Amino acid sequence: MKFSCPKCKSKIEIQKTFNKKMHVSCEKCGIEDLLEFSKNIDEVFLEFLSRFDQGLVTSVGLSEGLKEEGIIRAENEIKEMIGNNKPDKITEEILFSKKDYISQYKVLKNPEPEMGSKIEEMGLDESITEHLKELKIEQFYKFQEEAIQEITFRENVVIEAPTASGKTEAFLIPVIQRIKKEANEGNVFAIFVYPTKALARDQFPKIQKFAEKIGVNVKVFDGDTKVPERRDIIDEPPQILVTNFDVLHYHMWHQTKFSSLLSSTKILIVDEAHVYSGIFGSNVHYIIKRLKRICSNKIQFVAASATLDDGKKFCELLFGEKMQIIYGSGKKGQTDFVMLFPSLRTQRKLMVELVKKLTEKNHKTMVFNNSHLNSELLAIQAKKQKVNIKVHRAGLMTNYRTAVERQFKEDKLQAISCTPTLELGIDVGNVDCVISSTIPVNRLIQRIGRAARKGQRGYAFLALGNDPISQYYKNHPDDYFEDIEKTYIDPKNPFVEEFQVLAMACDRPISKHELKEHQEIIEHHIIKENLKIFNSRVVPNFDKINSMLNEYSIRGIGKSIDIFLSDRKVGDRVLPIALEELHKDAIYFLAGIRYRVKEFDYPKKNIARLERISRDYPYYTKSLTEEWPTVETVFEKRIANGVEVAFCKLHIQKKVYGYVNIELGQEITQGEKVMLDAPLEYDFVTKGIVFHAPRPLKVIEKAEDEDYAEASGYHATEHVVIEGSNMITGGVSQDLGGISLGTSGLIFIYDGAIGGSGASKALYDRFEKALERSMHIVKECPCTNESGCPRCTFSYRCGNNNEFLHKYSALEILERINKGEKTELVDPTEGDRPLV
């Protein structure tokens, strides 16, 4: 509904603040007021008019009250942040708009990169030196020099340097140098692996152009390589092969002609190494191990990334080899960085306004969201504001994503609403501004690295959200810059190990004396007749395991649901998340358009059929779920503060029994409930932690319903610990699920990936810090609701519509834990018998 300003007749904005008041304002003439919360917007507007008539509403005076309540930042504090810096007009407007709380303003400056030797001094092949001179490159950066030397000397190397700093040249030049000295024609010498086909195809022309000038042959081989091109590659193998791990996995276990080319490999280059975190990385660990088995040479490994925190340790686990790390700096540049907390509106409204302001000034903008849903919703709302924007995310067809990249590069598109798919080095041309939702700082720096590559002034905005960790950063912005993302893999994921050992036997028979570390799994497969012994070697039983391996995805575990629109496949979604997003009548987002699921056939056909809905349909859906955990194995236990916590193998039984309708454009997390005709059930094994929270005795004593106060306190604690751990563990809360068991005090937090991803282990290792931060989140939230709010106890991933939660009970629980109160893990069904 549109309300007119009583002073200038412009549009009036009415927003609910994070401390449950109503902020009424006119952007044109600047009058504003802060009123008590009421669900009836008409009543709020009528009270505002009455106060205006009484002369109580002005364009000055309210700001002081907003400052005192922590809704906006005092101007003198913002000026102090600015210091001697000189933000331009757009940045200044945003800093002093009084619409959001300015948590941090910084000018991010890259120092002048440290220079290394001149190209003639490096002892490179003459053809390489001549080509570098043609490209007007006379001197290497110091990190490039170090990388070239170490790779030429056959060392295993991790190159960690910012986006667009010259990492590709740092590994390409020494590979070509070695090829010129050592390679025999007709063999693959080096494999360059990229995490996606799109990125490999994007980087291929650059690599090919450089290499072929020096007489080195480069080819790309992936799912899009045509049959004649494949034959040419097999008949005349290139010296450098550009591909991805999916291709290596598939061709090795099928023992294709292509896989026979891989046996001559001497160097494996893995770019964007940070992507191989979680389940994908656990699979890649085994694919690398398998490549070593079939190679006649000892392979040299080179990894490159802009965002690895502990690159040496992570890559040593990924490759199973000792590595040395080389650090580099980027090109000199300057970016205005602002961290904003949306006190008077939602995160999405803030992001939409930022993209509108910047595109109106012809600044090309990338808006990064952390989920498919948020990228779609933002694009829908930005289009209503006349922003020329399109969605770019995984799950959309390749040709659509390529078209979006091309249009943005050719200046036919002002903005892209994207997920982390565009964090990688795909070239989308010139970017002026990056707007990002909350992510770890090292990934933010990589996103910001996309902007201002041509030397212009860059803009970067971190839009904090309506969630617990954002509220924490509002009050502790310096901590944000300390919370570096942790990359993690779990090579002992039983499902990954089980499938990859089968694949190893398919690659090449397993002899008696190898793979002793997997002996238990090998024997398990022999008993199940998946493997058999032939001529004293272990070989695959192809008839039995063929379909099993064909269905396996190295990027996730579990089968997928195929998505159809008018009998045409338009995407897929992996189980179990597919049950939550594609149940009958769910609203599903695809390329900025919403559809309703009219048919969901599971588990027989594993398909979902979509139908179009009106653009004006006011809702989207969120599923309602029930879960039950069973501890199967305890890997380790310890005491955190006084609380006993165990890291376990868990069996999770999951049921999707309904959904809620949530109004489009609203950031609320409760909605109208609808039950499914028949629940959808799924169970899986994963890894997680369990701890026993202390009783909230003070709250229980005062409560009318003691069981409610206790159980809802544990439920709220579960939410806050997951959200509070988010940046400590490197943004892994997206990968975690949680369960609190009634009044037992038992709280489970587990990996959402089947078999485990390593996320819960990252939380287990840093549990004390997560508990301390969780307490601060609840304590510092100014809301006065018993159940809390989205910025403290609510979770956008909660499977039961955020019912029921108790903020003050959770606060007492967290305070007791942080003071060192002791608890033990006991089974609620067996009296005081230890649970684990």
From TrEMBL:
GO terms for molecular function: 3'-5' DNA helicase activity; ATP binding; nucleic acid binding. Pfam families: DEAD (PF00270), Helicase_C (PF00271), MZB (PF09369). The keyword ATP-binding applies. It comes from the Archaea. One of its GO terms (biological process) is interstrand cross-link repair. InterPro entries: DEAD/DEAH_box_helicase_dom, Helicase_ATP-bd, Helicase_C-like, MZB, P-loop_NTPase. Residues 350-495 form the Helicase C-terminal domain. The keyword Magnesium does not apply. Residues 148-326 form the Helicase ATP-binding domain. Keywords: ATP-binding, Helicase, Hydrolase, Nucleotide-binding. This is Helicase. It comes from Nitrosopumilus ureiphilus. The lineage of its organism: Archaea, Nitrososphaerota, Nitrososphaeria, Nitrosopumilales, Nitrosopumilaceae.
